[in-house]
Design a protein that fits this description.
5 domains
Length: 757
């Protein structure tokens, strides 16, 4: 069973490396291979092609549910119901919506936003909406979160927003006893009514983390305790174990022996685990825990022994049969690897250590065992995690979770008692959070490193197994040597005089990084979307961390528009910058910013930087006052223009003439019709224009006339909305080379422009 489950996993994983779905001929070949292996009675290996086929079937089904481009951007009336707990603020609500009726063929599941909703959105509500939709699309960047992959794994076929007219109509709401999401919504509402800070309590009881602030998530991430504030497999196991113990004792005490106490307790534990997992929304860790719980309890009911790794293999196979695309989630790998490490550590040992010795051992081996995957997925490992978990695990597992669940039950029975109980719980959780926040602030709380190569990850996993093996295994120290390639990895850097420029995909905004042999500069930081989210946090920081950057040598904020300055605060709080230049230093009062002026210049590693604008006299329009920076490498030049328009372009031409010439031009003002004038383009004479623009943005950027102007002047153009992050390399021995991230690293689930399909 173990070999077969691993083969099925490998088959599912092979598909996820494909940029396009395989042709039907490949599926036929895989099916014939599976039949041949069955005839030869190679049952275990047969699971590999079957896993590949099953993953293709699931992926094809998901892709068939995606909205066609022909239906994007038009008003469409729909009727359906809210399928999850909405994420709501005063400005906007976001929620999943299941379509029941529509005059057009639409995906069944949508991700909608509703700006300034007239009433509170709740799970289970039935609505009539008029919506505007678009196919699943998100920014695609190195080191960043793949939003399109998340939508794909969630089965969401389109995103969009609710139109205010015609006015939405609420038809009704399901009962909480008929819809688990409505029950979760009811619990959420009652917790909000009884607790001022209900975010952590809701996370522990119903798996809803939207009430936890970004600062809190950052603390949990730095201390390696995120798994404790969401419903994980350990929570489900703990609840099931507690129910099993209580029912076993109570049933034995009752004297009713028609059914054995062990069997009754096993059935009760299964029911409790299933219900708790349902409250969590059946995440991948909860799926794994539930399957393992069922297998273990079934063994008790049938009075048969259950082997740990055999049970884990059954859980793995069950999860992949239910959802073969689960392998795309980091939680899938972290969850299963954590259980493997624990089983390997405590299983098959002759001696039985004390509870505390075993708890301490499990704590540190899981911290070590998961570190290679954490470096691979997040380029970060918490060094204070063993200590933080040693304190937090018993507080959460033995106190907080049972108290939270009892409090939730009492909310439906005795609200005053529940309110007092939950207040005690909140006091404990806030105290624990304060302690974790103190640990997160330690200088060496977190270790950041570039993403290791895949071969180093493959070498590290058996190294971990050797390192935590029993004492009798010889040469365990070799495990440390097998971990060294994880740390010895270095990011490739440009040589002296060379340059790498990356225009990040931040939607309708601008964020650009410049790397020389030994320096990093960021030009603009994209937009701020809400109090908890901005491009600095979601795009720039992940990219820089994936490159191992811990300090910036320079930051240029071209001007004060949100789509250029919005991510600056998040970026500077996490990674300080030695130099900050901007046309709006008054908008960065907490940092030592200097006003950019024409004539400022410096040299890094044989690469020259010169500020061309603004001059002494300010322009009337704020856009025209953007900091214009020219970068000169040994084999090419780049011109970074911010949001300048024709007035500033004309001034630059008059001021510098042919000195404006550059091989690469960052399109002024996202390619708007008020910029990229013919006179300016003839002065710059770029061979390549890269355009920072959002997919289907409301401004129509880049404008068709501007694109035609580029083409008529024999200028190659590329757009982040279509190509994802764009990297231009200026080497010493070749002209600028353009790399499109959506082409080089995009997978079959990623959106592609029609011309590339």
């Amino acid at each position: 069973m173990i070999t077969g489950a691993l083969a099925f996993l490998l088959g599912s994983l092979l598909l996820q490396t494909c940029q396009v779905l395989p042709a039907q001929s490949w599926l036929v070949a895989c099916l014939l291979l599976a039949i041949l292996l069955a005839v030869l009675k190679w049952w275990q290996i047969m699971w590999l092609p079957l896993g590949f086929i099953w993953a293709v079937v699931a992926a094809t089904n998901h892709l068939s549910q995606q909205l066609p481009e022909s239906l994007a951007g038009i008003d469409i009336p729909i009727q359906g119901w809210v399928a999850n707990l909405p994420d709501q603020t005063e400005e906007r609500g976001r929620f999943n919506f299941v379509v029941e009726k529509s005059g057009l063929k639409l995906p069944r599941k949508l991700r909608l936003s509703w700006h300034r909703a007239e009433q509170k959105i709740k799970a289970g509500q039935h609505w009539v909406f008029t919506v505007r939709l678009k196919p699943p699309h998100g920014g695609l960047n190195p080191g960043g979160f793949d939003y399109e992959r998340w939508l794909f794994t969630q089965g969401i076929g389109a995103t969009g927003y609710v139109r205010p007219y015609p006015k939405p109509i609420l038809l009704g709401q399901d009962s909480p006893w008929r819809n688990i999401d409505v029950l979760r919504q009811t619990i959420s509402d009652r917790l909000d009514a009884n607790l001022a800070n209900s975010g952590m309590t809701k996370a522990l009881t119903i798996g809803e983390g939207s009430g936890i602030s970004q600062d809190q998530w950052d603390v949990f991430r730095k201390t390696g305790t995120i798994h404790l504030v969401v419903i994980s497999g350990s929570h489900i196991g703990m609840v099931a174990g507690l129910v099993y113990f209580l029912v076993l004792k109570c049933w034995a005490w009752s004297g009713c022996l028609r059914w054995s106490p062990q069997r009754v307790a096993a059935w009760a534990a299964m029911a409790a685990g299933l219900f708790y997992a349902a409250l969590a929304g059946f995440s991948v860790p909860s799926q794994r825990a539930v399957v393992m719980l069922i297998v273990f309890m079934a063994a008790i009911i049938q009075q048969r022994p259950a082997r740990s790794f055999h049970t884990l293999a059954i859980a793995l196979l069950a999860v992949l049969l239910y959802d073969p695309l689960a392998v795309l989630a980091p939680g899938f790998w972290l969850s299963f690897l954590a259980v493997v490490v624990i089983f390997f550590t405590v299983g098959g040992r002759l001696g039985k250590p004390s509870f505390w010795v075993e708890a301490i051992k499990i704590n540190w081996v899981t911290s070590i065992g998961l570190s290679p995957l954490l470096l691979w997925f997040f380029q970060q490992v918490s060094l204070c995690s063993p200590l933080a978990n040693f304190i937090a695990v018993p507080v959460i597992g033995l106190f907080a979770v049972p108290l939270a669940l009892v409090g939730v039950v009492l909310l439906f029975i005795q609200q005053e008692l529940a309110s007092g109980l939950l207040s005690v719980l909140d006091f404990v959780l806030q105290g624990l959070y304060s302690l974790l926040a103190m640990m997160a602030a330690w200088p060496l709380a977190v270790f950041d490193h570039v993403q290791p190569p895949f071969w180093a990850l493959l070498l590290a996993l058996p190294g971990i197994a050797l390192l935590i093996a029993p004492r009798g295994v010889p040469n365990r120290w070799l495990g440390l040597l097998m971990l060294l390639p994880l740390l010895a990895t270095e990011q490739k850097k440009p040589a002296y005089g060379e340059l790498e420029l990356t225009l990040l995909d931040v939607g309708q905004g601008l964020a650009l990084t410049v790397q020389t042999a030994g320096h990093w500069l960021v030009y603009d930081t994209g937009g701020k979307f809400s109090a908890e989210s901005d491009s600095g946090l979601t795009v720039i920081l992940p990219f820089l961390r994936s490159r191992g950057v811990t300090r910036l040598d320079g930051l240029v904020i071209s001007h004060g528009d949100n789509d250029h300055i919005g991510g600056a605060d998040s970026l500077l709080q996490a990674i300080p910058s030695q130099k900050i230049l901007t046309s709006v230093p008054e908008q960065l009062p907490d940092y030592p910013a200097t006003r950019c002026r024409a004539g400022q210049s410096w040299t890094w590693d044989g690469v020259g930087f010169e500020m061309l604008s603004p001059g002494e006299a300010a322009f009337t329009k704020e856009n025209d006052n953007s900091c214009v920076l020219k970068i000169t490498a040994q084999s090419g030049t780049a011109l970074l223009t911010g949001d300048i328009e024709k007035t500033a372009e004309s001034w630059l031409v008059g001021q510098y003439g042919q000195r404006l010439q550059a091989d690469v031009l960052i399109a002024p003002h996202h390619g708007s019709k008020t910029s990229s004038s013919l006179r300016f383009l003839r002065a710059v004479q770029p061979s390549l224009v890269v355009i920072p623009a959002g997919y289907r943005n409301p401004f129509g950027h880049p404008h068709k006339k501007v694109l035609a102007r580029y083409q008529s002047n024999h200028i190659v153009s590329s757009n982040t909305a279509e190509d994802g992050a764009l990297t231009v390399t200026m080497g010493r021995h070749h002209s600028p080379l353009l790399s499109k991230f959506r082409e080089t690293d995009g997978k079959y689930w990623n959106w592609r422009p029609i011309s590339l399909q």
